[in-house]
Design brief:
Structural class of chain B: alpha/beta
CATH architecture of the largest domain in chain A: 2-Layer Sandwich
Shape of chain B: globular
Strand content of chain B: 15-25%
Distance between the termini of chain A: 36 Å
Strand content of chain A: 15-25%
Number of domains of chain A: 3
Oligomer: heterodimer
Order of helices and strands of chain B: EHEHEHEHHEHEHEHH
Strand order of the largest sheet of chain B: 3-2-1-4-5-6-7
Number of helices of chain B: 9
Largest interface: A-B, 18 and 21 residues
Helix content of chain B: 40-55%
Distance between the termini of chain B: 39 Å
Largest sheet of chain B: 7 strands, parallel
C-alpha cells in the first residue's frame, strides 16, 4: 500500500505523510530518486516514533523503510550484527537474547528502527555508563539521493558519520548498519526501587547509586506540589547473572480508536500519578524484572498515543546541565504543577559525560526531564514558552526527536553545529522540523 | 518439518513463513528468480538461526528447467518434508485486456508454472509417501471479477488443480493444503489502494499458514474472516454479480 497515510507519534503537527514503501536494497536508490524527482524532496520514515515534526518530510512524501528489515550478517563471537536500517530493536532483541547478547543502549520503546535510532541518536537508562546509541555504531551505508553510497565509520568518511548520528535523517538514507551488541548473562534485570519525596532526594539517590548500576531512571509525579514537589520512584537495575535467556512477547492491550477528546486530563492524571506513587512503599525494595517490562512498559499498550485524542499531544523533553539542574528542574516542575497538566509518569534521568560522535546529539551531562502534554491551543504560547525560558537560562537544551515547538533561534543556540550538518545535508532530503528551525 | 523447499522464496508471504520456520533444525532450499534478492533473504535466515540455507536461481516460466532444479533439490534435501509454492505476480488487468501476449504470459506465471512444478513435486512426494504441499492460491480465484479476472482465473486453476491433487495424494499420506489469502500488505499489492481494515501483514498470513499446516487443513482462508466474506461473495447470484463493480 504505497499510498498509506502516516503521522508522527504525537499526531501533532498534523501533516499527514504519503508513504512510499521500499522493499529491497537494490530498489532503494531508484525509489528515492523517483520521490525526489516527483516531489522535490523526501525523508526516510521508519516506525514513526518521533513525536513531533522531525520525521515529517518537507514535501509530506516519505520513503518508508519498514520492509527493509533483513539481517545481513552476525558474528556471535564478537557481537557485531549487520542489518538493514528498517530492522527494529525488537527484531534484534529477539535474536540477540538467546545468543547471550543485548542492545548496548535502548530507548523506552523497542518499536524503533535501526535507522531511526541513529538519526535521533537515542539514549536510554544507561546513558551514564554507555553514552548514546551512536557510540556503539561501527559502520553504516549512507545512500545519497544522487544514487551514490557512502560507507561511514569513525575512521572512514568521519564527517558523514558524525553528521548522520543524530542527523535527523538529513544526510542520506541509511541503508544498512553494523552495530556492536553488549554481552549479557541473563534476560532478567535485578532492580532496586526507591520511593523518594523530593527533587533533592532524587539528586542524592542519583549521586549515590548511578555509578554503581548499569541502569538508572526515575518516574516522578509532576502534579505534586509544595512539600511533595518532585516526589517519585527511583529505579536502578543491572543484568542478572542467572544465565536465563527468555524472550517475552506478551499479548498486548491496545487503544483501538482515537477518542475525540483526550482521556488523559487533569482528573485521570491526578488519580494515576497518585496511585503509582502510593503503590510503592517507602524504603528500598529489591526485585527481578524481565527485560521487557523493565525497559518497555509503554510498549504493552498498542497505540497508547491515541489516548490523547484527535488533537494529539506534545512531549517536552529537555536536559539541564549539572550546575543548574536541581534548581531548574524545580522551577520547571513548579510551572508544570501549577497548570495541573502533564504526564502520567514524567521521566527524570541523569545523563552522563560520555561524548557521542554525533554532531547534533541531544544529551549533555545533567538531568533530563520528559513529560507529555495533550495538545491544546495555548500550549506552546503558554506553558511551553515559560518552560523554554527556564531551560535557556539554565544552559540546557531541547530534544529535536520529541519536538514540535522549538524556536529557530533557540535551536541554533542549543545546537551550534547545525550549520555543519546543513552543509552535509542531502539536497533531496528535508524535514518539516529542519525547515522550521533553519529557514527565516 | 525439517527439510523445507520454497518456490518463490522472495515473495513477502514466503519470506514471512521462512522467518517463522527458521531455526537450527531446519534445512531450507529456496528457489527464486532474482539472485540478489534470494541472497538477501538467505542471509537474513542465516542470521535468524538457520545455518542450512540452499538457494537456486530459477524463473518458474522456464518449465524445462524445473526438473534440473528438483534434481538438485533432491540431492541436497533427500526428503522434502514441506514444500511451499508461493511464486506469482499480480497482473494489471487493463494491460492484459489490451495485450494477448501479456495475458498469456501472466497466466503462465500464475497458473501453468504452478501446475508444471506441482506435477513434478506430486510424483516426488507420492514416492516419498509423506510430506506436505502448501500452495498459495487466492480469494481472487473464487469468483471472476472484472477488475482482476485474469489473475482470478489463474488462481481458480491453481485451486482446482490442488484440490484434485489433494484427493490423489491423500491415499499416499501426502497432505495438500490450499491457501487463499485476502488482501495482504506486500510489495505485490503496493500499487493498490487496499482497505486498511481488511488488509493483513505477511506475518499474520504466515501465522495462519503455519497453523493450517499443523492442523492438516485442506483449504484455508487467511485470515479466517475471509472465509465469511467469500462465502457471501460466492452466494451472490450471477445476475446480480454482473451488475456489481467489484
Amino acid at each position: 500500500m504505497s499510498e498509506s497515510k502516516l503521522m508522527s507519534w504525537g499526531r501533532y503537527p498534523a501533516y499527514s505523510q504519503t508513504a512510499f514503501l521500499s522493499s529491497w536494497r537494490d530498489d532503494l536508490a531508484a525509489d528515492v530518486s523517483h520521490l525526489v524527482r516527483e516531489h522535490g524532496s523526501t525523508l526516510a520514515f521508519g516506525k514513526g516514533r518521533s513525536y513531533g515534526d522531525s520525521c515529517l518530510a518537507r514535501s509530506d512524501h516519505v520513503i518508508q523503510t519498514t520492509l527493509l528489515n533483513r539481517f545481513i550478517s552476525v558474528d556471535w563471537g564478537t557481537g557485531v550484527i549487520v542489518a538493514e536500517s528498517g530492522v527494529t530493536l525488537e527484531d534484534i532483541i529477539n535474536i540477540a537474547i538467546p545468543n547471550g547478547w543485548f542492545l548496548p543502549v535502548t530507548p523506552g520503546t523497542k518499536y524503533v528502527t535501526l535507522g531511526g535510532a541513529i538519526a535521533n541518536d537515542v539514549h536510554g537508562k544507561n546513558h551514564h555508563v554507555r553514552g548514546t546509541f551512536g557510540c556503539h555504531v561501527k559502520q553504516f551505508g549512507l545512500l545519497r539521493t544522487d544514487g551514490s553510497t557512502i560507507v561511514c565509520s569513525p575512521v572512514k568518511n568521519k564527517d558523514f558519520f558524525e553528521a548522520t548520528i543524530g542527523g535527523l535523517g538529513l544526510t542520506g538514507i541509511i541503508e544498512w548498519v553494523a552495530l556492536q551488541l553488549m554481552p549479557v548473562h541473563s534476560s532478567n534485570i535485578v532492580t532496586t526501587k526507591i520511593r523518594f519525596n523530593s527533587l533533592n532526594e532524587f539528586v542524592e539517590l542519583s549521586n549515590e547509586l548511578d555509578h554503581k548500576h548499569e541502569y538508572s531512571v526515575a518516574w516522578i509525579d509532576c502534579l505534586a506540589t509544595g512539600n511533595s514537589l518532585g516526589r517519585g520512584v527511583f529505579i536502578v537495575g543491572d543484568h542478572a547473572h542467572d544465565e536465563i535467556f527468555e524472550l517475552r512477547n506478551n499479548k498486548r492491550i491496545s487503544v483501538p480508536i482515537i477518542p475525540s477528546v483526550s482521556v488523559i486530563n487533569r482528573f485521570s492524571l491526578y488519580l494515576l500519578n497518585n496511585m503509582y506513587y502510593r503503590s510503592h512503599k517507602p524504603g528500598r525494595h529489591a526485585g527481578i524484572d524481565n527485560y521487557d517490562p523493565f525497559f518497555y512498559p509503554l510498549d504493552q499498550i498498542n497505540n497508547w498515543n491515541r489516548a490523547y485524542g484527535s488533537k494529539g499531544f506534545q512531549q517536552y523533553q529537555c536536559v539541564l546541565p549539572n550546575v543548574n539542574s536541581e534548581e531548574a528542574a524545580r522551577e520547571l516542575l513548579i510551572a508544570i504543577s501549577k497548570t495541573g497538566n502533564g504526564s502520567f509518569l514524567a521521566v527524570l534521568k541523569r545523563c552522563g559525560d560520555i561524548v557521542s560522535p554525533g554532531l547534533l546529539s541531544f544529551p549533555i551531562p545533567g538531568i533530563s526531564l520528559a513529560l507529555d502534554f495533550p495538545q491544546s491551543d495555548g500550549l506552546i504560547s503558554g506553558l511551553f514558552s515559560s518552560l523554554d525560558k527556564i531551560v535557556l537560562e539554565s544552559g540546557g537544551r531541547l530534544y529535536p526527536a520529541k519536538d514540535a515547538h522549538m524556536k529557530a533561534k533557540d535551536f541554533r543556540m542549543f545546537y551550534s553545529n547545525w550549520e555543519k550538518l546543513d552543509l552535509l545535508r542531502d539536497p533531496g532530503l528535508n524535514s518539516r522540523f529542519w525547515d522550521r528551525v533553519t529557514s527565516i | 518439518m525439517k527439510n523445507i523447499l520454497i518456490i518463490g522464496a522472495t515473495s513477502a508471504i514466503a519470506v514471512a513463513c521462512a522467518k517463522k520456520w527458521s531455526n537450527t533444525d531446519v534445512t531450507f532450499y529456496l528457489v527464486a528468480r532474482n539472485a540478489e534478492r534470494l541472497k538477501q533473504v538467505s542471509e537474513d535466515l542465516r542470521v535468524r538461526g538457520s545455518s542450512k540455507v540452499h538457494t537456486y536461481n530459477l524463473d518458474m516460466n522456464d518449465f524445462d528447467k524445473h526438473l534440473s532444479m528438483l534434481d538438485d533439490c533432491n540431492s541436497t534435501l533427500s526428503c522434502i518434508d514441506l514444500v511451499l509454492v508461493a511464486h506469482g505476480t499480480l497482473p494489471n488487468q487493463n494491460e492484459c485486456q489490451a495485450d494477448v501476449n501479456l495475458a498469456v504470459k501472466e497466466f503462465s506465471t500464475n497458473a501453468l508454472s504452478v501446475i508444471a512444478i506441482l506435477t513434478l513435486l506430486a510424483n516426488k512426494l507420492e514416492s516419498q509417501g509423506k510430506g506436505t504441499i502448501a500452495i498459495i492460491s487466492s480469494v481472487a480465484g473464487d469468483r471472476g471479477r472484472q477488475t482482476n479476472y485474469l489473475y482470478g482465473a489463474a488462481k481458480a486453476a491453481v485451486s482446482t488443480f490442488s484440490e484434485g491433487l489433494r484427493v490423489r495424494l491423500f491415499k499416499s499420506g501426502v497432505h495438500v493444503i490450499t491457501i487463499k489469502p485476502g488482501f495482504v500488505d506486500t510489495p505485490m499489492t503496493k500499487d493498490l489502494n487496499l482497505p486498511a481494515l481488511l488488509t493483513s501483514s505477511p506475518s499474520r498470513i504466515a501465522e495462519c499458514i503455519d497453523k493450517g499446516i499443523l492442523k492438516k487443513s485442506d483449504v484455508i482462508y487467511t485470515p479466517y474472516f475471509w472465509s465469511v466474506i467469500m462465502l457471501i461473495i460466492r452466494f451472490i447470484p450471477g445476475f446480480i454479480f454482473k451488475r456489481l463493480s467489484l
